[in-house]
Sequence to fold (323 residues):
Amino acid sequence: MVQKKINMLIAISAIASGIVLIWVSAEKLEKYSVLAAKKFGLSPFFIGSTVIAFGTSAPEMLTTFFVSLESQGSMVIGNVIGSNVANLSLVFGSMLLVISLKKLSMQQSKDIYKNLIILLISSGLVWIIIATDPFNITSSLILLASLFLVIMFWYKNSAVEIDSEENDPEESHTSLKLILSLGFLVFAAWLITFGANQILDNFNLGQLFIGYTVLAIGTSLPEIAASVSLALKGRYETVSGTLIGSNIFNGLCVLAIPGLLSSPEMYLGWNYSSWSPLLLILFIVTLIFSAFIFSSTKKEKKVSLVISIFFLSSYFISLYFAY
Fold:
Protein backbone atom coordinates (compact mmCIF):
# COMPACT_ATOMS: atom_id res chain seq x y z
CA MET A 1 0.00 0.00 0.00
CA VAL A 2 2.84 2.41 0.92
CA GLN A 3 4.69 1.59 -2.30
CA LYS A 4 1.52 2.21 -4.30
CA LYS A 5 1.15 5.68 -2.76
CA ILE A 6 4.80 6.45 -3.50
CA ASN A 7 4.33 5.40 -7.14
CA MET A 8 1.25 7.59 -7.39
CA LEU A 9 3.14 10.57 -5.94
CA ILE A 10 5.97 10.05 -8.42
CA ALA A 11 3.47 9.85 -11.29
CA ILE A 12 1.65 13.06 -10.30
CA SER A 13 4.96 14.89 -9.83
CA ALA A 14 6.15 13.77 -13.27
CA ILE A 15 2.92 14.94 -14.93
CA ALA A 16 2.94 18.32 -13.14
CA SER A 17 6.62 18.92 -13.97
CA GLY A 18 6.04 17.93 -17.57
CA ILE A 19 3.12 20.33 -17.99
CA VAL A 20 5.13 23.27 -16.64
CA LEU A 21 8.15 22.38 -18.78
CA ILE A 22 5.99 21.97 -21.89
CA TRP A 23 4.52 25.47 -21.62
CA VAL A 24 7.95 27.07 -21.10
CA SER A 25 9.71 25.12 -23.85
CA ALA A 26 6.82 25.62 -26.32
CA GLU A 27 7.12 29.38 -25.87
CA LYS A 28 10.86 29.23 -26.59
CA LEU A 29 10.31 26.88 -29.52
CA GLU A 30 7.89 29.35 -31.13
CA LYS A 31 10.28 32.26 -30.58
CA TYR A 32 13.41 30.66 -32.00
CA SER A 33 11.62 28.96 -34.91
CA VAL A 34 10.43 32.35 -36.17
CA LEU A 35 13.97 33.74 -35.79
CA ALA A 36 15.30 30.72 -37.67
CA ALA A 37 12.84 31.35 -40.51
CA LYS A 38 14.13 34.92 -40.82
CA LYS A 39 17.78 33.89 -40.58
CA PHE A 40 17.66 31.14 -43.21
CA GLY A 41 15.11 32.78 -45.51
CA LEU A 42 12.46 30.10 -45.02
CA SER A 43 8.76 30.76 -44.85
CA PRO A 44 6.89 30.61 -41.51
CA PHE A 45 4.75 27.79 -42.94
CA PHE A 46 7.82 25.66 -43.76
CA ILE A 47 9.24 26.19 -40.26
CA GLY A 48 5.88 25.38 -38.70
CA SER A 49 5.25 22.31 -40.82
CA THR A 50 8.75 20.84 -40.45
CA VAL A 51 10.81 22.09 -37.49
CA ILE A 52 7.96 22.67 -35.02
CA ALA A 53 5.88 19.79 -36.37
CA PHE A 54 8.84 17.37 -36.17
CA GLY A 55 9.72 18.58 -32.69
CA THR A 56 6.19 18.30 -31.36
CA SER A 57 5.80 14.89 -33.05
CA ALA A 58 9.02 13.64 -31.43
CA PRO A 59 7.16 12.47 -28.29
CA GLU A 60 4.88 10.32 -30.49
CA MET A 61 7.96 8.91 -32.22
CA LEU A 62 9.70 8.07 -28.95
CA THR A 63 6.66 6.50 -27.30
CA THR A 64 5.90 4.55 -30.49
CA PHE A 65 9.50 3.30 -30.63
CA PHE A 66 9.43 1.98 -27.06
CA VAL A 67 5.91 0.56 -27.43
CA SER A 68 6.99 -1.16 -30.67
CA LEU A 69 9.92 -2.76 -28.87
CA GLU A 70 7.32 -4.32 -26.58
CA SER A 71 5.31 -5.47 -29.66
CA GLN A 72 2.16 -3.62 -28.57
CA GLY A 73 0.73 -2.96 -32.02
CA SER A 74 -2.72 -1.76 -30.97
CA MET A 75 -1.21 0.85 -28.67
CA VAL A 76 0.91 2.19 -31.55
CA ILE A 77 -2.14 2.64 -33.80
CA GLY A 78 -4.03 4.23 -30.91
CA ASN A 79 -1.21 6.70 -30.38
CA VAL A 80 -1.16 7.76 -34.06
CA ILE A 81 -4.93 8.07 -34.57
CA GLY A 82 -5.54 9.58 -31.14
CA SER A 83 -2.77 12.16 -31.57
CA ASN A 84 -4.06 13.23 -34.98
CA VAL A 85 -7.64 13.55 -33.76
CA ALA A 86 -6.39 15.46 -30.70
CA ASN A 87 -4.37 17.81 -32.92
CA LEU A 88 -7.33 18.82 -35.06
CA SER A 89 -9.90 18.84 -32.27
CA LEU A 90 -8.17 19.83 -29.02
CA VAL A 91 -5.28 21.84 -30.49
CA PHE A 92 -7.13 23.58 -33.32
CA GLY A 93 -10.18 23.94 -31.09
CA SER A 94 -8.03 25.61 -28.41
CA MET A 95 -6.69 28.07 -30.97
CA LEU A 96 -10.20 28.89 -32.21
CA LEU A 97 -11.37 29.33 -28.61
CA VAL A 98 -8.61 31.89 -27.99
CA ILE A 99 -9.55 33.76 -31.18
CA SER A 100 -13.29 33.73 -30.43
CA LEU A 101 -12.87 34.88 -26.82
CA LYS A 102 -10.63 37.74 -27.97
CA LYS A 103 -13.25 38.54 -30.67
CA LEU A 104 -10.63 38.41 -33.40
CA SER A 105 -10.75 37.17 -36.97
CA MET A 106 -8.30 35.03 -38.95
CA GLN A 107 -7.19 34.76 -42.55
CA GLN A 108 -4.92 32.25 -44.21
CA SER A 109 -2.68 32.64 -47.27
CA LYS A 110 -3.91 31.02 -50.48
CA ASP A 111 -0.59 29.17 -50.63
CA ILE A 112 -1.99 26.75 -48.04
CA TYR A 113 -4.28 25.10 -50.65
CA LYS A 114 -1.64 22.61 -51.77
CA ASN A 115 -0.76 21.69 -48.19
CA LEU A 116 -4.40 20.94 -47.38
CA ILE A 117 -4.48 18.59 -50.37
CA ILE A 118 -1.29 16.90 -49.11
CA LEU A 119 -2.90 16.48 -45.66
CA LEU A 120 -6.00 14.85 -47.16
CA ILE A 121 -3.97 12.53 -49.40
CA SER A 122 -1.66 11.50 -46.54
CA SER A 123 -4.69 10.86 -44.32
CA GLY A 124 -6.13 8.60 -47.01
CA LEU A 125 -2.81 6.77 -47.35
CA VAL A 126 -2.64 6.25 -43.58
CA TRP A 127 -6.16 4.79 -43.64
CA ILE A 128 -5.20 2.37 -46.46
CA ILE A 129 -2.02 1.27 -44.66
CA ILE A 130 -3.85 0.66 -41.38
CA ALA A 131 -6.64 -1.21 -43.21
CA THR A 132 -4.19 -3.51 -44.98
CA ASP A 133 -1.03 -4.18 -42.95
CA PRO A 134 0.38 -1.43 -40.68
CA PHE A 135 3.16 -3.63 -39.25
CA ASN A 136 4.84 -4.60 -42.52
CA ILE A 137 8.26 -3.34 -43.69
CA THR A 138 6.83 -2.54 -47.13
CA SER A 139 4.16 -0.32 -45.57
CA SER A 140 6.85 1.50 -43.58
CA LEU A 141 8.95 2.16 -46.68
CA ILE A 142 5.92 3.52 -48.56
CA LEU A 143 5.13 5.89 -45.68
CA LEU A 144 8.74 7.12 -45.34
CA ALA A 145 9.11 7.63 -49.10
CA SER A 146 5.91 9.68 -49.09
CA LEU A 147 7.19 11.78 -46.19
CA PHE A 148 10.44 12.47 -48.04
CA LEU A 149 8.53 13.69 -51.11
CA VAL A 150 6.34 15.95 -48.95
CA ILE A 151 9.36 17.54 -47.22
CA MET A 152 11.05 18.12 -50.59
CA PHE A 153 7.89 19.81 -51.87
CA TRP A 154 7.74 22.06 -48.79
CA TYR A 155 11.39 22.99 -49.11
CA LYS A 156 11.18 23.90 -52.80
CA ASN A 157 8.11 26.06 -52.13
CA SER A 158 9.32 27.74 -48.94
CA ALA A 159 11.81 30.40 -50.05
CA VAL A 160 11.07 33.98 -49.05
CA GLU A 161 13.07 37.15 -49.38
CA ILE A 162 15.52 37.67 -46.53
CA ASP A 163 15.07 40.85 -44.56
CA SER A 164 18.08 43.12 -44.73
CA GLU A 165 17.44 44.79 -41.37
CA GLU A 166 20.06 44.73 -38.62
CA ASN A 167 20.36 41.48 -36.77
CA ASP A 168 18.40 41.17 -33.57
CA PRO A 169 20.61 40.33 -30.55
CA GLU A 170 18.26 37.41 -29.89
CA GLU A 171 19.30 35.86 -33.22
CA SER A 172 22.71 34.75 -31.90
CA HIS A 173 23.02 30.96 -31.54
CA THR A 174 19.46 30.58 -32.86
CA SER A 175 19.99 27.03 -34.10
CA LEU A 176 21.39 25.86 -30.76
CA LYS A 177 18.55 27.49 -28.83
CA LEU A 178 16.00 25.93 -31.19
CA ILE A 179 17.49 22.46 -30.69
CA LEU A 180 17.56 22.91 -26.90
CA SER A 181 13.91 24.01 -26.94
CA LEU A 182 12.98 20.88 -28.90
CA GLY A 183 14.96 18.73 -26.48
CA PHE A 184 13.21 20.12 -23.42
CA LEU A 185 9.85 19.73 -25.18
CA VAL A 186 10.53 16.05 -25.86
CA PHE A 187 11.65 15.47 -22.25
CA ALA A 188 8.55 17.23 -20.93
CA ALA A 189 6.25 15.02 -23.01
CA TRP A 190 8.15 11.93 -21.82
CA LEU A 191 7.58 12.99 -18.19
CA ILE A 192 3.84 13.34 -18.79
CA THR A 193 3.59 10.03 -20.61
CA PHE A 194 5.64 8.27 -17.93
CA GLY A 195 3.46 9.66 -15.15
CA ALA A 196 0.23 8.84 -16.92
CA ASN A 197 1.32 5.27 -17.62
CA GLN A 198 2.25 4.82 -13.96
CA ILE A 199 -1.28 5.83 -12.96
CA LEU A 200 -2.91 3.63 -15.60
CA ASP A 201 -0.90 0.62 -14.44
CA ASN A 202 -3.36 0.45 -11.55
CA PHE A 203 -6.30 0.02 -13.94
CA ASN A 204 -6.82 -2.91 -16.30
CA LEU A 205 -7.43 -0.90 -19.47
CA GLY A 206 -6.71 -2.21 -22.97
CA GLN A 207 -3.90 -1.18 -25.32
CA LEU A 208 -6.36 0.57 -27.64
CA PHE A 209 -7.76 2.87 -24.96
CA ILE A 210 -4.36 3.60 -23.38
CA GLY A 211 -2.83 4.46 -26.74
CA TYR A 212 -5.78 6.63 -27.80
CA THR A 213 -6.01 8.55 -24.53
CA VAL A 214 -2.90 8.61 -22.34
CA LEU A 215 -0.24 8.42 -25.06
CA ALA A 216 -2.20 10.56 -27.52
CA ILE A 217 -3.07 13.34 -25.07
CA GLY A 218 0.30 13.25 -23.33
CA THR A 219 2.21 13.51 -26.59
CA SER A 220 -0.19 16.11 -28.07
CA LEU A 221 0.40 18.58 -25.24
CA PRO A 222 3.39 20.12 -27.10
CA GLU A 223 1.11 20.93 -30.04
CA ILE A 224 -1.52 22.44 -27.72
CA ALA A 225 1.09 24.55 -25.92
CA ALA A 226 2.83 25.73 -29.09
CA SER A 227 -0.42 26.48 -30.95
CA VAL A 228 -2.03 28.45 -28.11
CA SER A 229 1.19 30.44 -27.69
CA LEU A 230 1.25 31.23 -31.42
CA ALA A 231 -2.49 32.04 -31.49
CA LEU A 232 -2.11 34.57 -28.67
CA LYS A 233 0.42 36.38 -30.89
CA GLY A 234 -1.74 36.20 -34.01
CA ARG A 235 0.52 33.81 -35.93
CA TYR A 236 -2.33 31.68 -37.28
CA GLU A 237 -0.49 30.63 -40.44
CA THR A 238 2.30 29.10 -38.38
CA VAL A 239 -0.30 27.28 -36.24
CA SER A 240 -1.89 25.81 -39.37
CA GLY A 241 1.55 24.75 -40.62
CA THR A 242 2.30 23.12 -37.27
CA LEU A 243 -0.97 21.16 -37.24
CA ILE A 244 -0.77 20.07 -40.87
CA GLY A 245 2.89 19.14 -40.55
CA SER A 246 2.42 17.36 -37.24
CA ASN A 247 -0.42 15.20 -38.55
CA ILE A 248 1.57 14.34 -41.66
CA PHE A 249 4.62 13.44 -39.54
CA ASN A 250 2.45 11.33 -37.21
CA GLY A 251 0.91 9.44 -40.09
CA LEU A 252 3.89 9.04 -42.42
CA CYS A 253 6.76 8.85 -39.92
CA VAL A 254 5.41 7.63 -36.57
CA LEU A 255 3.22 4.95 -38.19
CA ALA A 256 6.29 3.70 -40.10
CA ILE A 257 8.19 2.81 -36.91
CA PRO A 258 6.40 -0.48 -35.98
CA GLY A 259 6.94 -1.88 -39.48
CA LEU A 260 10.68 -1.29 -39.15
CA LEU A 261 10.67 -3.22 -35.88
CA SER A 262 7.99 -5.70 -36.89
CA SER A 263 7.57 -8.98 -35.06
CA PRO A 264 4.80 -11.62 -35.10
CA GLU A 265 3.76 -10.53 -31.59
CA MET A 266 2.90 -7.07 -32.96
CA TYR A 267 -0.28 -8.49 -34.48
CA LEU A 268 -1.57 -9.91 -31.18
CA GLY A 269 -4.83 -8.21 -30.25
CA TRP A 270 -4.86 -6.22 -33.51
CA ASN A 271 -8.27 -5.98 -35.18
CA TYR A 272 -8.94 -3.41 -37.91
CA SER A 273 -12.71 -3.44 -37.38
CA SER A 274 -12.18 -2.02 -33.87
CA TRP A 275 -10.43 1.00 -35.37
CA SER A 276 -12.58 1.75 -38.44
CA PRO A 277 -15.02 4.06 -36.54
CA LEU A 278 -12.10 6.08 -35.14
CA LEU A 279 -10.45 6.30 -38.56
CA LEU A 280 -13.75 7.58 -39.97
CA ILE A 281 -13.91 10.24 -37.23
CA LEU A 282 -10.32 11.27 -37.98
CA PHE A 283 -11.06 11.64 -41.69
CA ILE A 284 -14.26 13.63 -41.06
CA VAL A 285 -12.49 16.00 -38.64
CA THR A 286 -9.67 16.39 -41.18
CA LEU A 287 -12.17 17.27 -43.90
CA ILE A 288 -13.92 19.87 -41.71
CA PHE A 289 -10.56 21.33 -40.63
CA SER A 290 -9.47 21.61 -44.28
CA ALA A 291 -12.78 23.19 -45.31
CA PHE A 292 -12.53 25.76 -42.48
CA ILE A 293 -8.94 26.70 -43.38
CA PHE A 294 -9.87 26.85 -47.08
CA SER A 295 -12.78 29.23 -46.36
CA SER A 296 -10.49 31.49 -44.33
CA THR A 297 -8.30 32.09 -47.40
CA LYS A 298 -11.15 33.89 -49.18
CA LYS A 299 -11.48 36.71 -46.67
CA GLU A 300 -11.01 37.48 -42.99
CA LYS A 301 -13.11 35.00 -41.06
CA LYS A 302 -14.76 35.64 -37.73
CA VAL A 303 -14.46 32.67 -35.38
CA SER A 304 -17.56 31.77 -33.40
CA LEU A 305 -17.55 30.10 -30.00
CA VAL A 306 -19.78 27.37 -31.45
CA ILE A 307 -17.21 26.16 -34.00
CA SER A 308 -14.46 26.11 -31.36
CA ILE A 309 -16.66 24.03 -29.04
CA PHE A 310 -17.46 21.68 -31.94
CA PHE A 311 -13.77 20.95 -32.55
CA LEU A 312 -13.00 20.63 -28.84
CA SER A 313 -15.89 18.22 -28.23
CA SER A 314 -15.15 15.95 -31.22
CA TYR A 315 -12.25 14.28 -29.41
CA PHE A 316 -14.33 13.50 -26.34
CA ILE A 317 -17.09 12.08 -28.55
CA SER A 318 -14.53 9.79 -30.17
CA LEU A 319 -13.58 8.44 -26.72
CA TYR A 320 -16.88 6.52 -26.72
CA PHE A 321 -15.68 4.44 -29.67
CA ALA A 322 -12.18 4.04 -28.23
CA TYR A 323 -13.56 2.73 -24.93
User: Anything to note?
Assistant: Residues 2-40 form the longest helix (39 residues). Residues 59 and 190 are 7 Å apart (CA to CA). The chain has one domain: 45-159+205-322.
